[in-house]
Amino acid sequence: MEKRSQWGTRVGFLLAAMGSAIGLGNIWRFPATAYENGGGAFFLPYLFALLTAGIPLLIMEYTIGHKYRGSAPKSLGRMRKGFEWIGWWQVAISFIISTYYAVIIAWAILYAGYALNGAWGDDTTSFFVGDFLNVTEPGVVGGMNMKILIPLAIVWLITLTVLGIGVKKGIEVANKIFIPTLVVLFLIIVVRALTLDGAVDGLQAFFQPNWDAIGDPGVWVAAYGQIFFSLSIAFAIMITYSSYLPKKSDITNNAFITGFANSSFELLAGIGVFAALGFMALQTNQGVTDVVDGGIGLAFMVFPQIINEMPVLSGVFGFLFFASLVLAGLSSLISITETYVAGVAEKFNLSRVTAVAIGGGLSAIISLLYASNGGLFFLDTVDHFINSYGVALAGLFEVVAVAWFAKELKNLQAHANSLSDIMLGAWWRVCLAWITPVVLGYMLLQNLRVELM
Ligand code: PHE
Ligand code: NA
Fold it and tell me: What is the pLDDT of residue 352?
């Protein structure tokens, strides 16, 4: 058995946790979600979700990892024999996500180059779907898309090398480079976006509060959904990362810092994206509403169009935008891949390098499926099921098991309180035993209802 790895510094752990949290969800999911769910009024349910579920769950996961000192399956299994499968469920979800997350990062690498040479031409949508992804007939998955292979290989090479090197010299060092760089690049992007004509219109549209939204349960579900996804909760990640913390670590404080850092980045992204959308609306004589988009469409169809419209240094702006996606994506990919590397290594008593070769190698091979022509449909379907059911179920299993079956909350509370100046009170247990399961249960039923309608 190798000696358990440990972070070198507290900042190293925090940057790694932020690296996991700050991802594509902040850049392309949050802005559109906020806009569609009340704009400025969305911040109320969002903040509420952060404080009643996001940070409390983060504290719980950090404490579990720290107390039981293992990957998610190991830690949960140590808490109670029958709980190991909950950890594996989370690991499985992380595994599946990693296979397509890698492909999206590979696309962003290619698009960083296209930003400089303008390869996407005037019609950025038909370029993305047709020339780039080679989607010929909707729903058809065809042969291999050769141009994605090299960037995809680079993505996996970086990720697996970092993981193979280890926690302190690999994951920690990578995040110490990636995250500060990401913040600087992103600040440049936001400042540039704010100085474009029409930026104010975009911000107005983004912050304009629709107070009626507060009365809509769907808006609250969206807020909780965004918080869970964005903080990488119930993906086995935060348990794994906190298991590498030294014995004396202020867990509660770390959770607050991670939560607020992630939300700050999210707000920053919302401002940058909407400033740019406001510019585009002005250039194309449309309303901001007509150009709003999220997800893959925002990054690979709308942003190239915005870049086409920019008066000066558009290539540099575009390059920085896609470079940010790559950095945000890589630090998240490293974290999800680490969950199964750690899980498999502990379960089968393998060295880290062997676990990286087997687990990482397998996900790299599976990711080729999405790199095929038309693989986008495949990606969309898997992503839909993972997001609608996989994650919510993982979170629900976890809180119900810990709070109700193991009745472990008081023990975890005592553990966290012995290490922090911030004292967790009964409010913390109420958030986890009641609020979180009710919201997650409601979310699942809601998604199921939409599916069946
Ligand atoms: N938290 C990441 C984001 O906001 C998404 C993510 C989920 C990353 C799960 C890793 C694992 O983009
Ligand atoms: Na996030």
Answer: 97
